[in-house]
Amino acid sequence: MFMKKLSKVMLVMTLFLIPMIAIGAGEKQETFSPYVDGKGNINVPSDFREKWVHLGTWVVTSEAAAGPSLGPTAPGTGIHEVYTQPESVMVYKKTGKWPDGAVLVMEACSIKWDDLPTGHVILAGEILDRFVMVKDSKDRFKNNPNWGEGWGWALFNAANPKKNISTNCKNDCIGCHEVAKNTDWVFVHGYPTLK
Ligand code: HEC
Q1: 174-184 pLDDT, tens per residue?
Q2: CA 173 / ligand 1 centre spacing (Å)
Q3: Were 99 and a residue from 67, 89, 91, 176 both cysteine, which residue would form a disulfide, CB within 3.0 to 4.6 Å?
Q4: How buried is residue 53: exposed, middle or buried, by Cβ count under 10 Å (0-12/13-18/19+)?
């Protein structure tokens, strides 16, 4: 009789308690994305250049940085290279929408120029910053000011690549991205890979 009761208790423990403990322990780290922790802090994967897909390049010119034949100095001066995961490209091309957890990394480098046999060439100098957006269609981090409009937003300086120096996406990012609101805040017209 006692043994029967005990085995019932054990059964209940196995079925409910142990899985509950396991979920509780995992809660802190496991989220919808390996680059986001339970509080919504964003990381940049270090191997995106080797493993992810290059979407496109922007050259924001500056007379000072790129040589006298190029236009006036602009606030975002640099060469901007944009990358995302291969699976996010596949989903975007099929559906026209970014899947949950899609990460866009934009690496901003300084501009160098040279006169080579091809002509006046512009090439990337040192890495300055990495801008990161993480798709979140479920509004998971309502109380975290780095999340809004369906994305998580982060900015890392090359000198300290693990520290997000952006503190509030409404002040630091979204105002400028407003012009791309109709394409889910992303400047997709600059990405030949998605066409
Ligand atoms: C001065 C305006 C401006 C600000 C501020 C700004 N962005 Fe952007 N962002 C742009 C423009 C314009 C592009 C595309 C063209 C380019 O790079 O020049 C872009 C591109 C990007 C991209 C590449 C994907 C895309 O949307 O096309 C990411 C990622 C990005 N920004 C993240 C951020 C984050 C995160 C912040 C805030 C920390 C931020 N941006 C602040 C204007 C801005």
Answers
A1: 999 999 999 99
A2: 7
A3: 91
A4: middle
